[in-house]
């Protein structure tokens, strides 16, 4: 089993939060984020649908309950710049709980679609 970094999973959940998804009003944003995160994990062949929902739900709940908004942005910004956010104190603080989110779940490295040749 590949050890999938909780940082990568947190990044995926974070990116999902800022994606260009449009929601019909009124929407439960947290549920939409969990659903989108799980869909991405399945599309990237990281895990099955049930496991993805479990991990994404847990990860987003950890982020929502333990991070300040600025900390969330700092983690997301570092990851989107291609920097490793592991050294950020906020991520260090929640890493144990993020690791628990994927405990017992088989996770694979993401399989990104091949770029089309033009």
Terminal Cα span:
36 Å
Q: Determine the fraction of residues in helical runs and give it as a percent range.
A: 55-70%
The helix-and-strand class reads mainly alpha
Flag low-confidence runs: none
Provide mean pLDDT, rounded.
84
Number of alpha- plus pi-helical segments: 5
Rg calculated over all Cα atoms: 14 Å
Overall form: globular
* Main beta sheet strand tally, sense and closure: none
Output the helix-strand order. HHHHH
Can you tell me about this structure?
The chain has about 120 residues and is mainly alpha-helical. The protein contains five helices and no strands. The termini are far apart. The mean pLDDT is about 85.
Which terms summarize this structure?
about 120 residues, mainly alpha
At a glance:
The chain is an all-alpha fold and 118 residues long. It has helices at residues 6-17, 29-43, 49-66, 69-80, 89-101.
Please specify the SSE layout and strand pairing.
Elements (H helix, E strand, L loop, with lengths): L5 H12 L11 H15 L5 H18 L2 H12 L8 H13 L17
Helix pairs in contact: 1-2, 1-3, 1-5, 2-3, 3-5
């Amino acid at each position: 089993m590949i050890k999938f970094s909780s940082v990568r999973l947190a990044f995926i959940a974070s990116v999902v939060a800022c994606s260009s998804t449009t929601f019909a009003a009124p929407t439960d944003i947290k549920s939409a984020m969990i659903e989108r995160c799980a869909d991405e994990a399945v599309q990237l062949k990281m895990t099955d649908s049930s496991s993805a929902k479990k991990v994404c739900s847990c990860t987003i709940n950890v982020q929502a309950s333990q991070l300040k908004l600025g900390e969330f942005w700092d983690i997301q910004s570092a990851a989107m710049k291609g920097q490793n956010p592991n050294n950020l104190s906020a991520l260090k603080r929640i890493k144990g709980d993020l690791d628990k989110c994927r405990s017992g779940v088989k996770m694979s490295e993401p399989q990104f679609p091949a770029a089309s040749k033009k």
